Amino acid sequence: MVSSAGDLALDYSAAGVPVRDDLRDAHRTLLDGLRRPGCWFTSAARLAIATESRNAPHCALCRERKAALSPEQPRGAHERTRAGRDLPDAVVEVAHRVRTDSGRLSRAWFERTLASGLDEGPYVEGVGVVTMLAGLDYFCRALGVPPFPLPPPLPGAPSRHRPAGLRSGIAWVPILAPEDASGPEADLYDASPMIPNIARALSSVPEFVRLLQHMTRSHYLALADMSNPAAGRAIDRMQIELVAARVSALNECFY
Amino acid sequence: MSGSFSGVSVDLSAVNGPTGDDGGVAHGVRLVAFVDAVMSGDDAALVRERAALRSKLTDEARVDTCATVGAFNVVDRIADATGIPLDAGMAAMSVAVRAELGLSRFASAANTPAAANTPG
Asked: Which of A87, A93, A89, A104 minimizes the C-alpha distance to A47?
């Protein structure tokens, strides 16, 4: 996948090392995606969600919750950015919690969030924005590069597209199975014999399935290589998996 | 805790924190220390660990390490925010490893049915 984002110039110079072209392309593609309208949010709203999530580690409520034995105990309002001032409370909650304390999210929290007025589609789109940006920001932090500025929004209206064939009951959110993918989603998944749940998780907003594929292919391994223990990059597979597992342990991620 | 990866014995305990040795993974100590520094928010530690990693890995390898950190900060959040269960095949294969690492202590373990904790 080659991005349409040639105007997005990303500065990696602070790293002092060459950065692979496929990584650069993935980053441009991600930021290009964030500046466009999505299924449910305008481009301005998506960028506001991104800005909120990036600021979340500095939010006093998030810090208090992170330190608390139960994340549900500290009450209060999130500290908002100027960009996020008009976002619904539930959207800000998603942006902050998914960024700062995703390991302690619960089904009860998810259901409360939806009950407060956020539909499943916008929820998934918000999760997509927050998670992708988190990955990009952590890459930059690890490499020693300042976080890339978010681009200005591009015009257009949300598509309000909901894929046919979504099924509920597997996860908290509806999922599109490969065998049910049709129409615009017919090519959403590749021909691998096994498409794991992580690859399907954001499928109610198909853009993020494609973005995740792009991200994992360049930052980790292609799906087809994941079952190959000899697959690796300049670090070998064991090193890759140690790094991955340690990140996941620190994020308290069971999956 | 140990496991076998492609016929090579590795020490899994480093996943849960520094152990003082590489555990069968080349530069494992430095990699874990680097990840911890990235994730901790401690900028001074990160500067230190980045320099330490520079002495061990090529530029390409360091970029790949950073890319892996980025990738798993995406997928971890997606998994936990969508409540996806562990895939059945992986669940069956990983019962012992998950038990050894104590992964059921994580809240997101609730998203995978308890039956998945029975060896396949």
From this structure: A87
pLDDT in tens, chain A (255 residues): 444 677 888 999 999 999 999 999 999 999 999 999 999 999 999 999 999 999 999 999 999 999 999 888 888 999 999 999 999 999 999 999 999 999 999 999 999 999 999 999 999 999 999 999 999 999 999 999 999 999 999 999 999 999 999 999 999 999 999 999 999 999 999 877 789 999 999 999 999 999 999 999 999 998 778 878 888 889 999 999 999 999 999 999 888
Contact B82 A194 (CB under 8 A): no
Amino acid at A71: P
Q: How far is CA A17 from CA A20, A22, A54, A232, A253, in A?
A: 10, 15, 25, 20, 31
Would you call A243 and B31 a contact, using CB atoms and an 8 Å cutoff?
A: yes
A129 touches chain B (CB under 8 A): no
Q: Does A201 touch chain B (CB under 8 A)?
A: yes
Indicate the pTM of the whole model: 0.93
- For residues B38 and B88, what is the distance between their CA atoms, to the nearest angstrom? 32
Interfacial A residues in 29-58 facing B (CB < 8 Å): 57
